[in-house]
Amino acid sequence: MNKCDRRRFVELCTAGTTFSKLLGATPGASGLAKDERLGPNKSPRQHSRSTPPAGSDDWKQFSTAYFTYPAFAEKTTKEQIKSKVRDAVNSGSQVLMFFVIHEGYALYKSDVVERYPFAADFDVLAEAAAEAKASSLKLVACWMGMYGVGLQVQQHPAWLQVSYEGKPMRDANGNWNDLGSNSMCLRSPFQYLLLQQVKEVITRYPVDGIYFDGLCQLRGNCYCQYCRTEFQARYGRDLPKDPDDPAVFKFRVDAATEIVQALHAAIDELAPSVLLFLNTWGTESYYHVGHDLVRLGQYTDVFTLESNWERTGVQVWKVGMQKQLMVAETKKPVWYTYWMARNPDNDLACVPAASIKLWAGESMINAEAPVAIEQNVFDVDRSQFSTLQECFGRVKEVVPYLRDARRLCNVALLHSIATKEFVYPRKNERAYMDSLEGMNLALLNHHLPFEIVTEHDIESGLDKRRFKALILANAMCMSDSTVKSIGDFVNAGGGLLATYRSSILNEKGEERDEMGLAQSLGIQTMGLVVRPGGGGTAATGREATNWYRVLEGSPVGKGLEGRVSTFEGGMVKMEVSPRIMGEKGKTTVVAQALDYNYAKQATIPAAWWSWWPGQPGLPLIVAKEEGRVVYFAGELDGAFLRWGWPEISQLIANAVRLVAGPPPIEVEGPSSVQAEVFESPALEDGFLCLLSNRTTNPMFLRRDVGTEYHWVTEVVPVQNVRIKVAAPAARIREATTITKQRVDAKFEDGFVHLTVPVLAEYEGIFVRW
To answer: What phi, psi does 470 have (nearest 5°)?
Structure first.
C-alpha cells in the first residue's frame, strides 16, 4: 500500500466508515446480543471447530513452544530467520511462535500497515513459515496487541487509552508507565486495523494459530473520544469518571470480549483450522485488565498464562493454582510462558539454569504447556540454551501422556465465579482469594490431591466415583440451584467442608436470611462476631485476634487436642441445631472460640495487649460425622495464607481426610514437593507420576518484595521421596523415569509404592503393569 492509499485507509477508519461494526460481532443493547454474561452456573460455549478424539495428537492441549522475533533496529536477514527456526527445532520445541508485527510495522506483505524498514527486501513471515513447515513445526503468528505499536502511537495519538482528563494512563501509584501511556484503545479504529492484519495473515500464509499478547482495557478505563461516544450510545449517558461504576466496569470488560469475538468470527469464516491464542494474567486479570475468562473462553482456543514469579514476587505454587482456576473457568488449555531473559527490557541476559528447570517442572505437574520466550537473548547469551534443550527433551517424553490426561484425586475445591465477580469490582478480592489460596496451599502442604471446579461443574453433577468430597473456601455467593446441587451431593453420601461465610449471599451478592447450606451443615447462624476492643469492624467482621481451643472427641482435632491458638480473621456466630440435625445427625464441636478476658483488658486503660483469651464461647469448628460434613465458622483458611500457622493447615488436612476418606495418593516428603498422578488414554495399563521440587534458595522470607527480587539459582535436592498410589495392578511390569534414574517400585495391598532416590528439580515416572 502506498502512502496515499494508507492515508485514505486511516481516514476511513477514523471516520468510522470502513467498518460499520466489529467484524463478526452482533451488537445489541449491550454490544453482544449472543454474548451476554453466561453466569457462573453455565458452561462456556465450546469452540465451533471439531474436537479431536481422545488420545489424538491434539497439539493445542500440550506442546513445547519457542517464542521469538527478529532483533530490533537492525537489518533482518534470511539467515537470521533460519537461525531462529533452527534454535526452535534444536531446543526441542514443537511449536514456533513468531511475531509478525514489529513496533507497529509488518514483517509480511501487508496492504494496511507499513513494512518494517529493516526487513523491507524480503517477506519475513513467508520465510519463517517455509522454514517451520520444512522442520515440521506448528506456526503461530503473534501480535503484541494494544501495546508495542510505536508506529501507531506516533501516527494516531487519538487512538490511545487516556485518563478522564485526556492524558496518558498512569499506573496504580500514579506514575507514568509504558503499558498505560502507550496502549491503544480497543474501541478506537485500531481494532479494525488489527482485524485487517489478522485477515491478511490467515488468508495468505500457512499459519496454524494467531496469538495476541495484550487485548484489554486497563483499570482506570479509557476516556478517549471513541469510548465516550460508544458509552453514550449504549447507556444513554456520559461516561462516568468513577472507574468502578458497574456500567463502566462492564463497558471495559465488553471491549476485550468483543474484539476477541470478532477475531474468532473472522477466523471461523476465513481459516477455521487456525487456532486463536490469548495471553492473560490469570483470574486477577478480570478486574485489572477487563478479562472475563468465562466469556473469553467461548472464543479462544488456547490461553497463555504470564506469571514470572521472580519479578512479580508470586510464590511458585500460585502459578499452578492460577492455571487450574483458568482451566476451571474456561474449559480450555492453558500454556505457561516464561522469559529466558532476566529482564528483556533492561537486561538481555539468561535467567539461571535452576529457574528454567523449575519452570519446566511446574509446567509438567500442572499439565501446562511450557512456552520459552526467547526475546533474542540467545543471540547474545547462549549459556542456558543447553538447559532449555535438556528440559524440553524431557518434557517431550510426557507430552503424549498429558494430552487428554486426568488428574487422580478424590477432592473437588470450588472456585466460586459468582463470588469472584462480586468481590473484584468492589476492590475486595482478598476477602475471597485469601481463603481460596489458603485452602489450596494447605492441601498442597499435606499432599492431598484435588481438582478445582466451578458452579457449573457442581450443577452438572460431580463424578461421585472420583470426587468423594467438596470443599468451599469462603464461597460467599451461591445460587439456590448450586445450594441444592451441593445438598444433593451430600445426601448421596458426598463429603463437605465449608468455611466462614460460604453460601451466605446469593449469586447476586444479596444477603440471605440464613446461610444457604445451613441445613446441610447442621447449624444456625446469627451474624458475625464483632467484640468490643477486638480490633475488628462490623463491616468486615475481622478481628485482630480470635482465640480458640481444640477439643477432644473428633478426628478433625487429632494431634491438636487441648491446644490454644489464634487466627486473624472473621467468624460467624453459630449454634449446632438439633432440630436440623435430627436424632441420627451426631455433631461434635471440634474447636471452641474463647471470649476475650475483659478484666485483663481493663486493668490498664491504654494497654497495648488489649485482647486475652477468656472463657469458652461459641463453637468455631463442628463436624457432622455421619454425613461426613465439617464447618469452619472462622476464616481460618484465609488466616493460614496470611500467617502460615501450621496448626490451621493441620486442622484443614484432618477435616479433608474425614470428609473425603483416604486419598488415592499419599506422599512422604517435605511440603515443598508436589506429586501428581495422571491417568492417560495413551497409558492404558499404567499411570504417569510427576513430581516438582520447590525447595529453592531464598535465605529469608519477605512479605512485600517491592522492586527487590531474586532468581532461583539453586533447587536443593530431596532424598527418598515416597509415593503410594491406589492402582488396579497385579504386578509392576516396569517403572521408568524421564531423568533415567532408577526408582524402587513394588505393588502391595492394592497400592503401587514408589521411592525416588533423588528428586532434583522435577521427575516423571511411567508405571506400567
So the answer is: -125, 140
